Amino acid sequence: MEREEALNLLKEHVKSEAMLKHSLASEAILRALARELKQDENKWALAGLLHDLDVELTGGDPMRHAFEARPLLEGKIDDEIIDAIEMHNAQAKGKTREKTLDVALTAGETISGFITAIALVYPDKKAASVKIKSITKRMKETRFAAGVSREKIMECEKIGIPFEKFAEISLRAMQEAAPSLGL
Which domains does the chain have, with CATH numbers? Predict the structure, then answer.
């Protein structure tokens, strides 16, 4: 599946502007992580773009979300991407993420929301204003963006990327994609 087809499929199933921007941010981060880890950039970017394809279909139900994307994607994209999409909600099925793409997708899509939350507290609400130091500081503030799982973000270390480096890669990716993210 080419990106344009994937984006059209996403827009067919996801109407929320915020969720579309989250998907675009996740796509940018996953592409950058693939580059860092010398993986298939297009495959990883598709995983980031499509990871919440079924979020509105499932109403965000944690027991169903990510698992109802499979029928929408089978035969259209690599099974490894579909598996990674399901594994970003592994806890719902009592599973543990082990594969590099599974871990990268989960950590990457989670930090995208965290970086967005940080950008939105700045007067200009721009990703360009966010600094690595702000991300590391806010990670310790459990009341800030309390719904963001720090544990999922820290899974970056399971794939050999120290947190500070992961934050830097993710922030740079979002800053490059900022025009399409409204940041």
Answer: 3-181 (1.10.3210)
